[in-house]
Amino acid sequence: MRDKIQSFQDKFICFLYITMYNKNKEVVILKLIALDMDGTLLSSNLEISKENLQAIQTAKEAGHIVMICSGRAKEDALKLLEEYKLSLPVGASNGAIVYVDGKVINSRCLQNDKVYKLAKLLEFEGFPYKLYTNKGVYSPYTWQDQVMQAFEENKHALDVTLEELERITEKQKKSNLITDFQKIEDVVNNPELEISKFFILTFNAGHRAQLLSMLQEDTDIMVTASAPTNLEIMDKNGHKGNGLKQMAAHFNIPIEDTVAIGDNFNDVPMLEAAGLSVAMGNAEEDVKKLCDVVTLTNNEHGVAHAIEQFVLKQTSSSK
């Protein structure tokens, strides 16, 4: 009997937590809103518009939980949020790292032996890569030289400018978010490091397809992409869908009351897991096809539009 009473109390508390009343005394179901960063929350200039900031603030004031679910490293995502004075839970490294209120509440990292084998494969095949860890981003000391060489060899077939390439290679270096290493053994033999993601540049479409085919034979990993010129490797459970589920469980929000907004293929797991999936207007066409609705582009404050239309307007009319 005591267990039944406790169970009822827990469910009642959970109900109170995920519901509230609006000014008309109508019941409002609280939502967990998961936002991708690049190509979604951020404009093409890598800025968060005042419209998006206001929509996030309005959603938070209404009691909804807004989280970031990004392929970026935790430190990178938090630094950007700090620039805009935003305090949000974060699913980093494509959801492999789930971070709330200064604590990592869940992590799905790659085993060191797997990291070693993958690194050796990438080095043998000539693919530049970086490692996303619990201590920031690590890259081989030859990273920039490798990137420039790969770019020069394939620039005739690329839709990437030299300026964009320099941003890829220099952005994190200038902000002290990246650490060089001499050889992969230095990383995997460091007991303080946990590796959550490989970020790989793939400028040659044919070589990319061959690498993807090799990687997909490994059932312990998940391979995705956030742009046509990269591949990303995580643990098989280290994806945005799992990151969304972990965050929903933490806040006692049913998965059907979650909203995910994204633009690229690494967003697919969270878009498939969410109660409502929203594709950006600039999203890949295949991503748009699998989503419930499509919002405006990242340069048209598509996140703000989605929050206003599919969260605030919907919940304010709920009874």
From TrEMBL:
GO terms for cellular component: cytosol. PANTHER family: 5-AMINO-6-(5-PHOSPHO-D-RIBITYLAMINO)URACIL PHOSPHATASE YCSE, PHOSPHOSERINE PHOSPHATASE. Keywords: Hydrolase. The lineage of its organism: Bacteria, Bacillati, Bacillota, Bacilli, Bacillales. InterPro entries: Cof, HAD-like_sf, HAD-SF_hydro_IIB, HAD_sf. The keyword Hydrolase applies. It comes from Bacillus cereus (strain ZK / E33L). This is Hydrolase, HAD superfamily. GO terms for molecular function: magnesium ion binding; phosphatase activity. Pfam families: Hydrolase_3. NCBIfam families: Cof-subfamily, HAD-SF-IIB.
